[in-house]
Each structure stands twice: as structure tokens, then as C-alpha cells.
Amino acid sequence: MLAGLAVLAFAAGVPAYFVDVDKSAVAHAGKGTASIETLEKVYLDGSKVSAALMIADAAGDVENASAQADAVYARNPSWRAAGGDEPFFIAYLSTLPQGKSYGSVYEVLATAENRKKLSDFLSQTNMLLVDRLVKLRSLNTSILPPAYTSAGAPMEAAILTSAMLAQSGDFNPKFMRDLFQTLDGIDGDAAKTEAFEKYCLGLLTLARSMDWTSLRSVFAHFDSLGQVYEFSRRYSAAEGTQRKNLLASALLLSGDCDSCINYVSPNDERRWDDFLFAFRNGEGSLDFLLESGRQIYKDSWAAGYAAFYADHLKKFLAPAALRFPTGLLALKVLLSIFGGYLFIRGFVRMFQRRRDTPAWYSPLALLRGLLEGAVVGLTFFALFEPDAFKLKFETAEPPPEITFTFDKIINTLGEDTMKFATDSTTLAVIATFIVVQTTIYMFCLIRLANVKRLKLPPALKLKLLENDENLFDLCLYTGLAGTASSLIMLTLHLISASLMAAYTSTLLGILYTALIKIVHVRRYRSRLLLEAAKENSGALTAQSEK
Q: In total, how many domains does the chain have?
């Protein structure tokens, strides 16, 4: 038993999991890669002051960055309105009434006068794309009011902002290709018009919260119009300024927009915490977490007791968890089964001195030990990694709505569920039922083998088999109980498995019971009946001879 506990204790310190990643592995992935301080310095040295402040706020280090930003603004007062060294935007701001400060790009374009001056400013360009975008103010739209109408200020502001971004060269090649494909034949094409309008909604959402420098910095990482829309939906649903800045800063650090969008969830506090932890540990940590798509392992109550030694072992094995995650998980499974085998065999021998199988190395004994170890291993993972069974103890709340009057559209059009749940729960439940039923089946075979080894008359063995009739039906009883309990837990939303997993329990119970009673018990009982008949006929012959 002590040897089994030692092996299980070692398995508890292996940083590999079915559905999570270990914190030490995430932290180790960031070593030697770009840190948050490096990213801040890159943007600060590049005169993108507001972007550096956004990164610092996301990381929780805004005081130091603010002091550096104030020093930069003190040397260049004109940069403050744009958020950095933006000659084109600062030149446009100089044409507006002086003495008024603007907090975001949308505030600048909120008035018709400012939009008119920007339109006049852009008319001086020689870039054909800018001219093509400005002419979209005559586009007939269906989601937002057309720009040429009295209620078309949002659409016009989005078009002019897009033209400024194009003039500043902030569209990357992939975005440019998607933009040109959308603009080609947009008049009269409802699908392309809708795609462009949704892009405008996303752009307005970002322009409402960001100044010109931050907006430019973020836009350089978008590869398509649809990405702008999806990112803005996730951005607007984030609670608080820090989380919004965290999402935008993570995009600046990783450059992978789709992974950032897919990882965080408005209603999942744990994912936001994991996202922040990886972000603070640098580019490698964030890339590793986003690539895995998993949450960081959080100690269960059982793991909490083992943390005093397991954490040191996890840090030691963190490099292996990065390079060989599957191999390390396989090692952990084998250790849990082997440790479970040693533990259960030691526990049984405390109460049963006589061996119930011919030898420990017999096929029946080895198979039973494997199943016993698997049962202990399942219990081990249920205690140390309950998320492998997708236990749900929290209730989901609807994401917050965007506060723009027209922004309700952004949460209803093209709605998608962004589900992270998989079929791993169903597979885990079915695997559990298979292991439990197979274990019961093996115990029934061992009981049948015990009866076979008894040196008793066939008639008495038949009586013993009759007495064990309920034992041979145990698989069926267990299968019915598994189905009933699964349906109850599904109704109470304690697990997220499908109905197939619940009914599989009864099906396995029927199959195993039929296998035991028809293949094994019935065949042996028939042999006993023949032996008993021979004994009776022999006894009758002997009596007749006498």
C-alpha cells in the first residue's frame, strides 16, 4: 500500500492533464521570449505612447509607464491629442477648433463639421483606395443608416476612419486583399454590403474606446474585415477597461487575432485570469496557451494537500511538459494505474491472506489487477483533475451589450455561440462505465473460478452457483443504476455529457450480464449437470449390482 501511495504521489506531481495545461509549463514557455516590458519599450521608443500605456494598464504596471509617457508628452505636447507621433492625424486636428480635447477617434468624428473637414483633408490625397473608400458614402446600406442620410453619422464616421487608416498604411496585405474583394461589385451585392457594414460596426466599436495611435497599432494585426467585426464583439463584451486593454495588448504581443478571440469568453472569469497570467509571462507563454486552447490547471481540493511537494516536481518537469505533453500524460496514466494496482493489492491482502487466483502472474490475476488499477486511476483523476469530467458548478450569464445605440446589432447579426465544450465528457463517462463493468465481470469470473477449484460434488457446486445468481446479475444492476444517475446529473446540469453516455451504461450491463450467464455460467452448469447425472447413474448401477 505504501509503495502504491508513493507512486500515486509522484503521479500527482506530473504536470500533464487531459483538459488543462500546467501553470509551471505556461510560465516556462515565456522564458527567453519577448516580455511585457520589452513590448512597452518597443511602442514607447516608436513614439506610440498610448499603445504603450494600454499595454502597461493591461499588465497592471501603469504607474511606471505613465511617468515615462508624461516625460514624452512634456517634450512633444502636440502628441497627446493623437496618442503619439502621428503627423497626418495631428495635421488634421490642427484644422479643428482649438481648446477642445478628444478622448477617442469617435469623439473627434462625432460632429458633422469635423467629418466635413476630414473629408476635405482626405480629398487632397493621391491614393486611389482612399478616394474609393470616401465615395462609399453614397452606398445604400441595410444595417446602419446610409451615410448620406440625416442619421448616417455612424456610417460616415466609419468610412472616413477607414480612409484615414488606408492613408496611413495600416492595412496589412491580407486585409487589403479581403477589402478589395469586398469592394469589387459591392453595389447591388447584398452579401458584400452586409460584410462591409459589419466591418464598420466593429471599427466604430474600437474607435469609441481608442485614440488614433492605439487604433492604428491594433489594426495592423487584422487579416480580414470579418476579423475586425469578431474582435470588436469580443472587445465590447469584455468587462472593464483593463480587460479591453488586455485583449488589445495580447493581440499586439501575439499577432494572432483568431486565437485571442476564441480563447477568452465574456462569462468565463477563469479564462480571463489564465489569459492575463500568460500575457504577463511574455510572448512564449501567451503563444503556448493560445495554441493549446486550454485553461490553466487549478488545484482541486485533493491537489491542494499535495501542493507542498508537487509544485516543486512540476517546475522540474515543466520543460518536458512543453516538449512532450502527450508522452508525459501517458506516463502519468501508467503511474496512476500501477500505483492503483499496488495500493489495492496491498489493501486486499490486509484482510484476505489466501490467494483467490492460482498465481499473481496468471492471466486472470493480471487482468483483474489491471482493471483494479484502472478503477483507482479513474478515482485519482476524478480527485486531482475533475475538469476531465467537465463538472459544472457555475451558471452562465448573458454577455453585456454594447452601449452604442446602434450597437445592439453587433450582438445579434451573425451570432455564433463560441462553444468550447467537446465530446470529451461523453467519452470519459463511457470509458468509466466500461472500466466499472469490466471490473465486475472479472470478479464474477474469479468467483466462478473459485467454485470450479472447490473439491465438492457437482450437485453442491450447482447449489453454490444458484446462490450466486444475483452476483452474476450485478452488471445489469450497475448498468441501470449508472443510467439513472447519469440522467439525474444531466437534468441538474452537473455534467455535460450526451444522452448516449447515459444509455450506454444499461447497454453494457445487458451485454456483460449476457456474456457471464450465457457463455460462462450456463456452459459450466451444463457440465456440472452431466457430471451429476453420471454420478447418479453410477450410484444407481452400484446399488443394482449390490
A: 1
Residue in 515, 371, 370 with CA at minimum distance from that of residue 448: 515
Which pairs count as long-range contacts for 435-439, CB under 8 Å and 24+ apart, including other chains?
A: 435/371, 435/374, 435/375, 435/378, 436/375, 436/478, 436/482, 437/475, 437/478, 437/479, 437/508, 437/509, 437/512, 438/371, 438/512, 439/368, 439/371, 439/372, 439/374, 439/375
Identify residue 373 by its one-letter amino acid code: G
Going through 459-526 in order, the beta strands assigned E by DSSP cover none
Phi and psi, residue 98, nearest 5°: -80, 160
SS3 222: coil
Q: CB burial class (10 A; 0-12, 13-18, 19+) of residue 328?
A: buried
Output the pLDDT for position 309.
87
At 33-83, the pLDDT tens digits run: 999 999 999 999 999 999 999 999 999 888 888 888 889 999 998 898 899
Domain that holds residue 506: 427-546
Is 494 a member of any domain? yes
Q: Is residue 455 part of a domain?
A: yes
Q: Are 262 and 230 in contact (CB under 8 A)?
A: no
Do 79 and 51 form a contact (C-beta atoms < 8 A)? no
Q: Is residue 460 in some structural domain?
A: yes
